Amino acid sequence: MRDEYGLRGREQDAGSLATLAVDLGGPVNLAASLECGQAFRWRKACFPNRPDLVVAYRGVIPVGSISVPAHPGTAPGHQIALPSGTAPRQLAVCVGQAEPVTSKIVVAYDDDYALHIAGRPEVAAEQISEAVRLYFAADDNVAAIEAEVARLDPVISGAVKEAHGLRILRQDHWECLASYVLSINNNIPNISRIVEHFSSCLGEPVGFGLHSFPPPEKIACQDSGFLRQSKCGFRDRYLKDAAERVVSGEVNLADLELIPTEQARERLMRIRGVGPKVADCVLLFGYHRLDVFPADVWISRAMSRYYLGGRKVTPKMAREEGMRRFGPLAGYAQEYLFWMARGDGSLR
DNA sequence: AAACAGGTGCTAA
DNA sequence: TTAGCACCTGTT
Length: 348
Prior knowledge:
Blueprint: H1 10-14, E1 17-28, H2 30-35, E2 43-44, E3 55-63, E4 89-97, E5 102-110, H3 111-118, H4 121-135, H5 142-152, H6 157-162, H7 173-182, H8 188-202, E6 205-207, E7 210-211, H9 216-220, H10 224-229, H11 236-248, H12 261-268, H13 276-285, H14 297-306, H15 315-326, H16 330-343
Antiparallel strand pairs: 1-5, 2-3, 3-4, 4-5, 6-7
Helix pairs in contact: 3-4, 7-11, 7-13, 12-13, 14-15, 14-16, 15-16
The protein binds a DNA duplex (13 and 12 nucleotides) through helix 8, helix 13 and helix 14.
């Protein structure tokens, strides 16, 4: 039954599969990281020719498109070296691990598409390895973060244990922005369906039968008919507005890496459909600003229950309290709280 | 069948 | 500043 995952049949036969092991230098739990709701394009899969891997997912990651410079208040960044003239690309990968939590993950990709990005196989392997390390935030000391959050806060230490190895990803800026605009008053299956629809209709093939998420230019030029067919509902004009402002340069997504979080937040919120919650999600999941604390209704309820004595808590209050309590680890703390809130049926 | 889903923009105090 | 309300669409 592997065919349903697209790992056999035409796509796989067409290109040779390359596999590499990537060490993240600390615990990773793929299931927790990819199914906690921060990213919308990962699907459970069977890893090709590796029955020893207990879990695997396929999805699309940016390769060579993100550089991570230093911005005020964060650690010095690093940059991926690219052959000059190489455009940012996306590549489908299958990731797996031999136990639920490990520090090493196995990555498979289609050589043909990888060569299209890098030119030579060794370069491709090196770039993809770096891209995976960046996407899964190998630069986060997750063991230390978990210990510190648990120490700061016994209340959520249980969730820290349960979500052991959860990593906040570093998603593509534009895909992340578009995804969270689509998340407004929506549910995860629906969001995933729409993102998938845009990719398969307007994206380019990137291996495993998957397609890249279309760039803003491709979305900005769609007529209202297409947007209606994609079932965005009332979010269609928000998405269009986002695409247009990014294309026009009014909101320069690359530049947001360089400026302080508050300023980046203000710029993102110029876009119709980007309020505090969406902006914070983009900053956390797209720009890896770990000091932000996206507060939705679930988080607000959880904050009320666990910290504010059951009093009524608005998202604004929850956000301020979360950032105050957890400081530079607010993003991770928010994930653990969300984990608890989901598991706690009594939070309605 | 009515309510709800990881909010936001708009309007009115 | 903030409370109240409508909103596409798919599910339960």
